[in-house]
Amino acid sequence: MAKQKVVIITHTADNICIDTVSRFVHEAGGEAIRFNVDTYPLHTRLSSIYQQQQQHIFLENETGAHTLHDAAGIWYRRSYNVGKGLQDALDKEFRQAAMQETKRTLFGMMEALDIFQMERFSVYRRLESKEEQLRIAVACGLKVPATCISNDAAAIRRFIDTVNAPVITKMQSSFAIYREGIEHVVFTNAVDENHLQELESVQYCPMVFQERIGKQLELRVTIVGYEVFAFSINSAVSERAATDWRKEGAALIQSWEPYRLPDEVQQKLLTFMDRYGLNYGAIDLILTPDNQYYFLEVNAAGEYFWLDELCDNAISRQIAQVLMGKAAHRGA
């Protein structure tokens, strides 16, 4: 009898969580197929064939030849550096077309697979709308900070005046700016008088302005299927991390602790996941000094590896179980 197969879409530089989930898949009697998209198309072959009214998808990579259409599940974890090396392999006039076709083929293949997926590419694209996330969170009974996303300086000033409280600013996407070869990651920052004087520059790039919520704790809640794994950190232990704990992420990695969410909040988060049909989500919450919970965002590819160590790899174990259909999940 053939082993149950699980496909993991990732890249060669991903962290230890891939090996950990793969180990649990193997221990459960399954096979984990790792598809490093940064090796595609130069070092990986991918074929999608429709014949006799049936779909077949084949992958040939460094581990051998694999069929994907008969897998138990697929984990779309990362798609970094698709088409790596094409810029050196092709003449300049062909590069853009080759990259476009490569990405369309990869993402089209994933969307077309008629198997359980965590998550579909289209769901990732939908989650890029932070506006919809906030709307659905409110519809599920969660509190959200007052928020303005705009490139209109006048509208932003009116928003700040109306909030009548400290405001933070951030970008919707995660990225870094490279200046003189040095990477500068864009974090969340408090809005001060200097920012207000330079506000007209938002005309060139819209930004998120949000009421700064007082923090008792910051929470990272990882939901896999219907299992909830909550952890907390007191980011106030570091002045640099008080606005955004990621500024001192490595230094604070040992400061996280397991956290028990109130049943009511946990149920609202599960309802939120139901609305999107999500089976994996890394959710950021704030617990205020007066014990109110505020939803910030969900990331369907959010990191969890350092939290996994605090729960004896229970998150990775649950991911493997969901992918193999051995644990309850949303969708087919």
From TrEMBL:
Domain ATP-grasp: 134-328
GO molecular function, one term: ribosomal S6-glutamic acid ligase activity
Keyword Transport annotated: no
ATP-binding found in the keyword field: yes
InterPro entries in alphabetical order: ATP-grasp, ATP-grasp_RimK-type, MvdD-like_ATPgrasp
Keywords: ATP-binding, Ligase, Nucleotide-binding
GO CC annotation terms, alphabetical: cytoplasm
Cross-referenced Pfam families: ATPgraspMvdD, RimK
PROSITE patterns in the record: ATP_GRASP (PS50975)
GO biological process, one term: SOS response
Protein name: Glutathione synthase/RimK-type ligase, ATP-grasp superfamily
Organism field: Chitinophaga rupis
UniProt lineage: Bacteria, Pseudomonadati, Bacteroidota, Chitinophagia, Chitinophagales
